[in-house]
Amino acid sequence: MLGEYPIHGRGAAEIAASVERAVGAGELEPGQPLPPMRELATRLGVNPNTVAAAYRTLRERGVIETAGRRGSRVRSKPATTGREGLRLEVPPGVRDLSTGNPDPALLPSLAPAFAASAAQADREPVLYGDDPIDPDLARIARAELEADGVPDGPLTVTSGSLDAIERVLAAHLRPGDAVAVEDPGWGSVLDLIPALGLRTVPVGLDDDGPLPDELRAALRAGARALIVTDRAQNPTGASMSATRARALRAVLREHPGTLLIEDDHGHAIVDLPLHPLAGVTRHWAFVRSASKAYGPDLRVAVLTGDPVTLDRVRGRQRLGPGWVSLLLQRAVARLWADGAVDRAAVAAAYGARRQSLIDALAEQGVTAYGRSGMNVWIPVPDETAAVARLLQSGWAVAPGARYRLTTAPGIRITVSPVTPREIAPLAEAVAAAIRPSPDRSYR
Known about the structure:
Structural class: alpha/beta
Strand order of the largest sheet: 4-11-10-9-8-5-6-7
Number of helices: 15
Order of helices and strands: HHHEEEHHEHEHEEHEHEEHEHHHEHEEEH
Shape: globular
Number of strands: 15
Helix content: 40-55%
Strand content: 5-15%
Largest sheet: 8 strands, mixed
């Protein structure tokens, strides 16, 4: 069952560490079954309860999963395996449209903002015990959040959206709790949740956001939290409409104990209005990052929420990294204040590329989705075959398996690097790779 790799250990911690090392080294592969607990206990000469404790630890760390009588196996995307191991290998000469990165040409120059931030740091060095939030960043962020209808609440700064989401989940949930997630949804979130020992409950969506009936079913089934993307949803480009937001608020009012987490990573690259859900439930969090508009290396996100949630996040943050660099915060504040990104122009640029590709695909008889952001989602009959054929044609796209739980196969194309002259040949290559094209929604 385990090939050449033997599991070692006498105690639960040693057994768990042995499995975790093997998964990290690739000696135990994703999906590989583990021995039944009693069988392994006999082999190691230990009590079955010891093996049960080891497997429980591995589940909580997101390394393995258990499916009742079918036993335990290594997760398809174990937390101990680096994301780089899941990336598509792009051969030389192939156009890479799989990354999800913004267009570098649309990112602002960082030198002036960092020079000003460094000069301030020279004059006023940041020391232990100083305020961990730059007042200018807090002021600008609060004004923008208020203008977008996000309820007033305390602020903190995290190292990007995923850092904020992880901290909020850890502030309220415990291993075994269920989290409602968009399906298809952001692959990093789908990996993070089981890595925290939590369970994912898929909620389908369309161009207007999560489907109310599916959210209601997930909450009635016991989901304690909901993570939703307001705009530029990854991978589908969905953007929550006002009508959909009203319907989702009504569902959440039926379950006021739900922990609500909203991710508005696309706030500066889309031209669609925000329709936040925040404030309907007792505990909520709203995160807005700088990565898409100002550069992925700017690991800065502003997080607001209810007082209890923010107090827990800030308290735990103080015991870990302490704070996000004020040098970074001040640079981002200056970029926001100076209008370093022409938001309308950036949104228009991504919108034109997105719509051009969707229109070109429609001419080829291929249905595609992408209401906002920098990605286009295309349902396909067989995503493995589609990805392979497109690679042979000189195009690298992301397989949908990274982003979906129960939805039908699909592929994601990042339009950021696409030029106008590439639209037609790309659409032709996609059509040739996926025929016959399925006539259905991306669900």
